[in-house]
Design a protein that fits this description.
alpha+beta; globular; 28% helix; six-stranded mixed β-sheet; eight-stranded antiparallel β-sheet; 11 helices; 387 residues; single chain
């Protein structure tokens, strides 16, 4: 399940941008160039498939602060996603602003199999205002019942079970997107506290279920445990022994780090911010399931010692074989950490009041990389100049 192309119109600084990501991506650019807006919009896309779009936009202040320059009359996106070798879907959603208010309605929505080559089943979803149809399991376009439709939510987020299998798979693929930014690792953060013992296999976007995910995968999956142990030893030396999860009160578990040189285990509450951030990043990248994810991580270098960045890069390269990974970064050291495998590099620029995205490729980039690393080009300004 691979994102091939994304076009965004009317969202904050993203007046009209098109992005074609690879399997492993880094996005660079100065502060204020729009990198964070791209991540926030990726989050919005996932939310639109969950049925929480109305509350999400309301939490951001409504449409007025979200539309480009406060004056665009709609926010829309078009994404092309490959679900299999024979199935490529294109999805479009338009949110029309109601006058100059902060309210909106879903104006248009389509899901089309662009690999179907004109067959009857190429259209999966079509919606124009209150008129909407979805393809059923028998291959027939059926009018959506009025109780399925709300002005603020996509048809894709409704009860798609029982409809065309491609619709269900496409919805699930968006539900599995994860965007990680502004992770709280302060002393009062939940990921430092004893947690209710329950099976969890995916890290939430805020990262606060780290203990549950680590406990589940570390105790059940030998390969994951070996990956975590190898990363911790690479970062902290052979003094690292293992993670342990002793019980706490009220069906809760703790996370502790066992060091060979110490009799007393170190609790999550006592770990440094950098150690927790490192554990969190490795947990994301080493997660063996499910495949086909789209993961975006904002500034992975935050709080980490530069010696940890090659470890994160190594795990990211391996993870990109089973999922799409995107980083935003300001760190030349992080770019330098990618040696044998070069990520798809996108430059974000602010120009004439809007964000411009350009994927660097071709002979110009190849020429420079013969002599310089990505980090060296970033430090010199050459990467941004290519954009």
């Amino acid at each position: 399940m691979k994102l091939l192309e994304l076009n965004i119109k009317g969202f904050r600084s993203l007046k009209d941008v098109t992005w074609q990501p690879g399997d492993l991506n880094v996005i660079i650019g100065p502060n204020g160039s729009g990198k964070s807006n791209l991540l926030r919009f990726l989050d919005l896309i996932s939310v639109s498939a969950q049925g929480r779009l109305g509350k999400y936009i309301q939490s951001l202040g409504g449409m007025e602060p979200l539309v480009w320059d406060g004056q665009a009359m709609a926010i829309s996106f078009r994404l092309t996603k490959q679900l299999s070798s024979i199935e490529t879907l294109r999805y479009e959603l338009q949110l029309a602003r109601l006058g100059l208010t902060s309210s909106y309605k879903v104006e248009n929505e389509t899901l089309v199999d662009i690999a179907a080559q004109g067959k009857q089943s190429d259209t999966k979803i079509t919606r124009n205002g209150v008129r909407a149809q979805m393809l059923n399991a028998a291959g027939e376009l059926m009018s959506a019942q009025q109780d399925f439709l709300t002005d603020e939510e996509s048809l894709l987020s409704t009860r798609v079970m029982g409809f065309d299998l491609a619709i269900q798979r496409f919805q699930i693929s968006l539900l599995l997107w994860r965007l990680y930014h502004d992770i709280d690792v302060s002393q009062t953060a939940s990921l430092r506290q004893a947690a209710v013992a329950r099976s969890e296999r995916r890290l939430d976007s805020d990262g606060q279920n780290l203990i549950q995910v680590l406990h589940t995968l570390y105790t059940e999956n030998r390969d994951f445990k070996n990956d975590i142990n190898a990363a911790m030893r690479a970062a902290f030396g052979n003094d690292f022994d293992e993670l342990v999860f002793p019980p706490a009160a009220d069906n809760r578990i703790q996370m502790r780090v066992r060091w060979k040189s110490l009799k007393r285990e170190q609790s999550a509450a006592d770990l440094s911010d950098g150690t927790l951030r490192f554990l969190l990043l490795v947990t994301i990248l080493a997660n063996p399931e499910p495949h086909g994810l789209f993961i975006a991580i904002d500034e992975p270098e935050t709080g980490l010692h530069p010696s940890m960045l090659p470890i994160i890069a190594e795990y990211a390269v391996e993870a990109s074989k089973r999922m799409q990974i995107t980083f935003t970064t300001h760190s030349p050291q992080f770019l330098d950490a990618f040696t044998d495998t070069k990520p798809t590099t996108t430059v974000a620029k602010w120009q004439d009041g809007e964000t411009i995205l350009k994927v660097l490729e071709g002979e110009q980039l190849a020429y420079w990389l013969q002599e310089y690393s990505l980090g060296a080009l970033f430090r010199s300004g050459e990467l941004e100049a290519m954009g």
